[in-house]
Structures are given as structure tokens and as C-alpha cells.
């Protein structure tokens, strides 16, 4: 595919992965990213199954392992910080993967691995696209023009590139709202923090999740399931207004809520987001194709978002490398290979997310009693298909990207 020009929107996870393999195959790749520099924020993410295999083929597995949070597992605690159920790391088959890394650390690792052969344009984004029979003319917000044989939308679940290619209506309808919102932030480490992630439910369908960082700080996420649509408007407001809402929602939550709320005003990496899935009937339109969350976000509660993004990007690059003379045929082959894997990854646990976020104190006790039984009996491994979809649930092709391609050990 020497000489093929590929434009990718998004320098998070999916974009650099597909760029890595495309450049191995000889393509010229440009990545445009709205942020002014590689993003460093974000929550803990899991890498499971085939996702780790692909990172190994990229030659970055060791770098990723060096930056893992060393999370020991997930612990469900009450207001007194007493554990009702412990789920240790179990080779990626439990609630916690053995490869837990901060999203920003993973993104930076992928950027470092590709920056010498991929052209990155930061602080810019796609404004418009005009296609013809041989490619697409793309105009960036800065006024810069780029001619591309194919455009890959890898700019997240609310992808603007997807909206431009598929239309506002189709793009909007593809987002499946799960009725939950989350806010993420970093707070100072405290003596109560250890290598276990701690999950605490409060009445009113509220939840606090405290997780280890890589030794410097502590990561916190707050979760709510509001009955009104207030958060849709609040998402457009300034950060101070958003923080005020979350403070109001959790001021009587108990456990370590006071500690979190005291740190909230100083959290400069705070952001909030709707919990949603993206489901498109087709992953391509003309010369544009979606990858990662932009095309098939399984939601943060699935634990599969990063793995699916990595696998999908690898498959997309492989099909383009095999069919560089017909990118639209390559797009179809990519979707045919990935669709079933994505469908399985998007199947959440029965009743999720509501089941894991009871409305009443009694409901929380019932949930914790059930989880305690599951933890004590060790039956989670037998319920794995219901709680965690298989991260290796497809045959992973071994594409030939050129002599520099890395194979499994």
C-alpha cells in the first residue's frame, strides 16, 4: 500500500494503533488531534486478551506493563469501609484485568511508538470533507487542506468526524444512552488507599469508585443515574458549575465522599461524561470509516472499550493493507471480521447498569450479599460470560504488514 494517504481523526488509542500498522505496510499517515498536545488524563483502562497480543506485536507490551497501576482487584465496601466482597485479579476473567493502566499513559506510549513515522497535527480538527471517486478533500479548522485516500474517525464516542460523514441524525441515533453519568478526577493519595479498587454504593443510585494510580495519586469516579435530563445541559456548562452539581449530589453519600468533595475544587483533570454505547448499522460511508469508540463504544462499564478499540484498529489496518486498491472493500471486510466480536463486547451484564446501582439501602444490602456469595464461592469464573465478554472471542488474523511486523512470541 505504498503511496496510500490515510488521514486519522483522533490521537487517543485507536488512532495510533491503526497508524502503527498502516505505516508498517508503507502508507503515509497523518493524525489530526483537537487537543494541543498528547492527552495525559483519563481513567484506568483494562487491556485483555487479543488487546495484549496486539500490543505485543507492536513491541510496546513491556512499556505498558511497566506503567500498570498494579491494581490487586475490586473490593465492594460499605460506609465503614468494611469489605463485603473481594474479587482479585484473575487473568482478565474477573472484574479487574491484570493489565490496568491509566488511559493517558497508554496513549502516550502509543504516541511515542509512532511519532517518528506518523505526521501528527495537534490543536486542529476536521471541519469539512468532500469526496470524489478517488479520495477525499478534507479541510481542517485551521484552514489547512489535506487530500486523503481514506479517512478514519477515531475521535471518541461523540465523534465529530462521524457526524460529518454519516450525518447528524444517524450519528445521534447511534448513541445508546444507558441512563448513567460519570465524573472522573485525580485526588491526593490517603492512608486508606491501597492497591485494591474500592466500590461504594450510596442510596439514590449513586456510586463512588476509588482506584490506585501508578503510585503518585488516587483516581476517583463518581456515578449517578438521574431521573431528569439536567446533566445533558450541564455537560455544556463550565467546569465550576459541573463540580457544584456533583458536590450537591454526593454531599450526604457517606464513606469517603467528604474527602473526595474537599479535593474536587482543586482537581484540574475533572471531566464528566454520559455512559453510552455506540451502535451503527454500518461502519463506513464512502471513504470514511469508524474505529474504536467512534464506531462501537461498548461503554466504560463493559471493561472492554480499550481492548475492542485496539483489536478493531489492528483488523482495520490489516484489511486495508490487503486491499489497498479498494479501500471501501477493505472497510467491508473489516466490519465483517469485527462485527460479532463487537456485538458480544457490547452485551452488558443482565440489568446493567441499574442492577449495580440500587435505589435504596436495602437494595444495596441485597446486592452486597449476592456479591459476597459470588466472592466466597468463586463462581464468578463460571459467570464470566455474563459479567465479562471474552476478550479473545475471535480468531485473530496474523497480517503481513512487512518485514518489520512483530509476531507473537
UniProtKB/TrEMBL annotation:
Keywords annotated in UniProt: FAD, Flavoprotein, Oxidoreductase
Example GO molecular function: FAD binding
Entry-linked Gene3D superfamilies: D-Amino Acid Oxidase, subunit A, domain 2, FAD/NAD(P)-binding domain
A Pfam entry, by short name: FAD_binding_3
Ranges of residues in domain FAD-binding: 6-324
SUPFAM superfamilies membership: FAD/NAD(P)-binding domain
Record protein name field: FAD-binding domain-containing protein
Organism, scientific name: Meristemomyces frigidus
Lineage: Eukaryota, Fungi, Dikarya, Ascomycota, Pezizomycotina
